[in-house]
Amino acid sequence: MVSDKIKGLLSMKGKKYKELAQLFGISEQAMRNKFARGSFSADELIMVADFVNCQLAFEIDNTQKVLLTKDDLRNPIADSTEQ
Question: What's the CA gap between 58 and 32, in Å, rounded?
């Protein structure tokens, strides 16, 4: 399940639900609900990848990758370091 993989990434990177909720602009409870439902949009997955300093990509035959980055977001968010 996608939620379990995101939880694992957060744990490996020492990040908390609260921080991710703040990035998404939602409450901690709303974030817990999102994890319980496993309802993450493509934009949200890109945001998670950026938050944990990872790449989100489609890999084709181990020879080509199509990376999804913050530049691909429909509604770009401000970088937390720019605030």
Answer: 27
Beta strands in the chain (DSSP E): 56-60, 64-68
Label residue 23 exposed, middle or buried (CB < 10 Å: 0-12, 13-18, 19+): middle
> What does the pLDDT look like over 31-68, one tens digit per residue?
999 999 999 999 999 999 999 999 999 999 999 999 99
Quote the DSSP letter at residue 77: P
As its CATH architecture, domain 2-74 has: Orthogonal Bundle (1.10)
Tokens 């181990």 sit on residue: 62
43 or 83: which carries more pLDDT confidence? 43
The domain spans of the chain are 2-74
Q: Residue 11 pLDDT more than 50?
A: yes
48 burial (CB, 10 Å; 0-12 / 13-18 / 19+) is buried
